[in-house]
């Protein structure tokens, strides 16, 4: 028997304990990674930037030519009900739409009945407390990120074999996490996070070949609020290694400093001044009604 984290799911129109939430072995979401999803977090009983996540999820669903069983209000209502039933104050909330199963196992994607489910588990972090305090040590993988000409990275997807291969490479190299390049000397993203460099007080992040992370957008918005200049552009691996500060952004943990890339120490001390300011402001926004939605009990 597998042990599961505490949590609950909404699947096949029912709320069930996480251990009972199952999908068919014939689901194309599993057999073809033919699915899209989104993850929003709840912190102290408030969703963070829920509208942004719902916008991205519904856009991803239409780009893949799939259909949700609910309109936006219906979707939002299910998310609230899942969080309430989970009893979790701080939660990781994943909504998923898979291509589903075709009754005849036809190879035509139009024949499949799309499958929607949600699961809510305790809030999770891309880096533990100690790693967040001193910055992550990362490896730049030899495997490159799947190109945007193959898979549209703005559709949040489960094409993660490159990222997982990269993680194994990083662990083999004695590192804690991984960055993937584009094969042309530029950095893209890592397993579930976007990447930022700070040089001479200005912030850059890759413009293309990456998901438009909601935390990425949040970091850009917070920079604007702090009067820090930002640019979405190409970021070379060399520029990253010679940056004053490097940080990553993810719904799973917010803004996290990078201490070392391939044995090159980043900046004077980690976290750097701008990373620190952004992190503080990021968490302050978690009680601001303009940035959050209270879970409706
Ligand atoms: C979800 C995800 C991110 C981070 O996006 P957020 O919306 O900030 O959580 C980055 N890269 C990939 C590949 C992702 O799937």
Briefly, what is this?
The protein has 297 residues and is an alpha+beta fold.
Q: Could you please describe the fold and organization of this structure?
A:
The chain is α+β, with helices and mostly antiparallel strands and 297 residues long. The chain is built from eight helices and 16 strands. Strands 7, 8, 9, 10, 11, 12, 13, 14 and 15 form a nine-stranded mixed sheet that branches. The protein has a seven-stranded antiparallel sheet with strand order 2-1-6-5-3-4-16. Helix 6 (214-226) links the parallel strand 11 and strand 12. The model has no long low-confidence stretch (mean pLDDT 97). Pyridoxal-5'-phosphate is lined by residues 39, 156, 189, 192-194, 211, 213-216, 249-251. The site of pyridoxal-5'-phosphate (PLP) has 14 residues, from strand 10, helix 6 and strand 13.
Give the topology.
Layout: E1 8-11, E2 14-17, H1 28-31, E3 35-43, E4 46-48, H2 50-63, H3 72-86, E5 91-101, E6 113-122, H4 129-134, E7 136-140, H5 161-172, E8 177-179, E9 189-190, E10 193-199, E11 202-206, H6 214-226, E12 230-233, H7 237-241, E13 245-250, E14 254-261, E15 264-265, H8 273-284, E16 292-294
Parallel strand pairs: 7-8, 7-14, 11-12
Antiparallel strand pairs: 1-2, 1-6, 3-4, 3-5, 4-16, 5-6, 9-10, 10-11, 10-13, 13-14, 14-15
This protein binds pyridoxal-5'-phosphate.
């Amino acid at each position: 028997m597998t042990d599961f984290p505490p949590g609950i799911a909404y699947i096949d129109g029912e709320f069930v304990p996480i251990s009972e939430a199952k999908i068919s072995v014939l689901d194309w979401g599993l057999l073809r990674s033919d699915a899209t999803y989104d993850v929003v977090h709840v912190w102290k009983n408030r969703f963070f930037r829920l509208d942004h996540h719902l916008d991205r999820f519904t856009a991803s669903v239409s780009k893949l030519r799939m259909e949700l069983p609910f309109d936006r209000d219906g979707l939002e209502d299910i998310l609230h009900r899942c969080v309430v039933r989970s009893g979790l104050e701080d939660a990781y909330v994943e909504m998923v739409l898979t291509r589903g199963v075709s009754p005849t196992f036809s190879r035509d994607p139009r024949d499949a009945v799309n499958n929607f489910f949600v699961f809510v588990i305790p809030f999770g972090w891309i880096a533990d407390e100690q790693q967040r305090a001193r910055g992550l040590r990362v490896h730049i993988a030899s495997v490159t990120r799947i190109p945007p000409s193959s898979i549209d990275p703005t559709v949040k997807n489960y094409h993660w074999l490159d990222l997982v291969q990269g993680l194994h490479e990083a662990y083999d190299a004695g590192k804690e996490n991984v960055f993937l390049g584009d094969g042309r000397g530029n950095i893209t993203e890592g397993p579930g996070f976007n990447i930022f460099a700070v040089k001479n007080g200005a912030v850059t992040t890759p413009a293309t070949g990456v998901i438009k992370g909601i935390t990425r957008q949040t970091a850009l918005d917070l920079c604007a609020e702090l009067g820090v200049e930002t640019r979405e552009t190409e970021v070379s691996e060399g520029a990253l290694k010679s940056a004053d500060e490097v940080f990553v952004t993810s719904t799973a943990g917010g803004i996290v400093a990078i201490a070392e890339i391939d044995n090159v120490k980043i900046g004077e001390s980690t976290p750097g001044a701008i990373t620190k300011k952004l992190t503080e402001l990021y968490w302050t926004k978690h009680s601001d009604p303009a940035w959050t939605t209270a879970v409706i009990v």
